[in-house]
Give the backbone structure.
Amino acid sequence: MNLENTQVQMRKGILEYCILHIISRGEVYASDMLEELTAAKMIVVEGTLYPLLTRLKNAGLLEYKWVESKSGPPRKYYTLTNMGKNFLDGLSDTWKDLVLSTQKITNNSK
Amino acid sequence: MNLENTQVQMRKGILEYCILHIISRGEVYASDMLEELTAAKMIVVEGTLYPLLTRLKNAGLLEYKWVESKSGPPRKYYTLTNMGKNFLDGLSDTWKDLVLSTQKITNNSK
DNA sequence: AAAAGTACTATGTATGACCAAGTACCTTAT
DNA sequence: ATAAGGTACTTGGTCATACATAGTACTTTT
């Protein structure tokens, strides 16, 4: 039981929310997301992001189209499906509630 | 992949933080915590809380003493060890960072 | 004594982040 | 042309943890 491990646990689920949110703002491919997540100190590695995208796609929340690139292999550009949009709305509420709940508890210091 | 499942994932890790925080405010036993967590809509059940407390105790973050009860079997009253206090401090920072990171991303709506 | 309630324990399942390689395709350098 | 390097994505495996479910042990109430 170390701190790093718990930090990983804290990120779970939140990551999914953040990724859906990034995609909701317009077409992006994996490296775009990785860049934004890293910039926000939401440390994520390839091995986490790609499987997550596949999972979300298989669940019908995302879809993608292949786009040729000038500097390398083609890329998968992701967008949200309607189902994905609804799901994201639900997650937004959950997240807000969670933050509030945590505040309620951690502000209870005597 | 349903919403409820993702909500569970979001709670993971945060729960540990909240529990440590509750204990940091003074001696409590499991039902006290359950009550406060439920009041904060941080839905938790016995089967989640007890193993978690045992895990934290085995990791050296918590200690307990048995206290007789007037209405039932004796109770384990928990307190934080020094190690637990340090751990909680680390978690506080992590949590604040996570909330900030998420804000950074979800406020980026164009 | 039996029933009901409280506090805690033990076992098993499912999910998802991360790791570590590996594949495939593209561009650039020699 | 061919080799080297980079980019984009895949795959298989491990580990931690929330939750479900069932069970133990002790207490008070009827």
User: Anything to note?
Assistant: Helices of chain B lie at 3-11, 14-24, 30-39, 46-58, 82-106. Chain B has a mean pLDDT of 90. Chain B touches chain A through 46 residues (CB under 8 Å). The longest strand of chain B covers residues 62-67.
